[in-house]
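This week, work through this protein record:
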Amino acid sequence: MCLALACAGRPAGADSSGVLSFAPHERAWLDDLPVIRVGMDPYWPPFSFREDGESLVGFDVDLLGILNARLGVTFEIVEAENWEALVGMARRGEVDVLFSTADSPERREFLLFSRPYVDFPMAVITRRESPFLLSVESLAGQRVSVPRDYVYFEWLRRNHPEITIVPTESNEEALVLAARGEVDATVANLANASHYIRARGLTNLKIAGIADKSFELRLAVRRDWPELVPLLDRAILSLAPEEKAALLAKWVYVEHEDLIVWSRVLPYVWGAAGVATLTIVFFVLWNRRLSREVRRRRMAEEQLLCAQARLTGLNEEKSQVMNMVAHDVRGPLTNILCRLDLVGHGGYVDIAKFRRARDEIKAQVRRVNRLLERLLVVNALESGSFEPTFERVEAVSLVRETVDGHRGPAQSKSISLEERFPEVPAYLESDRSALAGIVGNLVSNAIKYTPRGGRVTVALESRGGYVAVRVADTGPGFDDEDKARLYQKFTTLSARPTGGENSFGLGLAIAKHYVDVLGGRIHCESKPGEGAVFSVELPVGRAKAGAGGESGSFGCGKPLAGASMPL
């Protein structure tokens, strides 16, 4: 089936026919192609699917028509019975381009990838009676249905072996298994899952959580056609924002009528309810912990004075936590409830206003979620329930991956995020999540307190039985009073975030706890007005928790052995 569709309007750099301008050798290369075979999954709504048994329709089909006009070539759609078969055809060279393809190491063995043309979050979907989930890790020990050969099948199998994966032929089958109770949950592209839930009437399902991984859809090109990738990228970049918005509105966000449908808001209602429930659970657990402390101290009369001092400190900390959480949770929840109330009463008939309200709800839920996750991490570390899993870790790639995850916030403040890593790998016995937590909190803090246009530098070095990581910023630095309280929980220092970011006073405390658990040392060098440099040394071999000895008293005074590392 060939497409010969024209797109409305002329993009920048296009001739009178709407075709983009290319260099002579690029135009000649395109003209030498008699046809470009495009693989599309007929069971992938709302991107490509058959409507009432007719021809293929969807977001990808419309986008293909636009690309056809921009490139001035002929596309032929090739279908298969499922996505697994399409991937097999691409591997054998029977199709030239695949739509709606996520990048992965496995697929890079036989495909090249364009820039993403749209992305959606990955949703964790369960039955309505199941609890809400803070993260994918909450699915440990459960059965999760996922279509084979989908990128999140590979991602779950590689990163979460603690989850039992039940492979299926399609997203629809995965959702049906979850609705029947044959599996505990499924993980799916949010847009695709929402379509099937409505179309199949799977009303006993809900979106129980959003994974920390987005689902970027790209065009995948056969590896022996590298010339096509930059041309596709140029065509994708030529899409005006209003063109992409019109496609999304047609296939993803808007119903056939021009009214806001309450069912589109339900995932956010469930998300807000889940956050409120988790907040209440946290307070209950915290108070139970205090009660156990009181009973234990009453049994030891000879330590009464020590117990009273400890209890007073815990009560003060509890009050501080309750005040802080109440302050940081009340605002977002009030905002969410107000916006949902407006939606429920038809207050957002205009689709643009509805989207802004939806985005605000998501931002507020994520803000509260980040606060609760940090509180749970601190509680696990302090209670001793966090048990590190030591394994052989390649520090350079892990630190680089963690730093790359903060480039978005850095770019939003025009901050230069620089890396100084060795060219050879650096291995150590460590816990991957703890090491990533140390680097992530230090880099996040540095970006938060560095003014717009500043610089954050991350360096790594391996020598003398230690791997050393340094994070330097050009922020306001610390005075002596700040240095004495750097690693205390819920501490407000003299410096303030420079871009209006939230500061819960937990980042450095979490980093310090992780360093202690891994037997390392942490040190800070800083003067007011001259920025700050945090240095962490972790042993290459496995060490007992707290083996660094002096890490608890380092503060910003005594330098580490690796403190001379060049930045």
Q: What stands out?
A: Residues 2-117+217-253 form a domain with the D-Maltodextrin-Binding Protein; domain 2 fold (CATH 3.40.190.10). The chain has four domains: 2-117+217-253, 118-215, 262-383, 391-553.
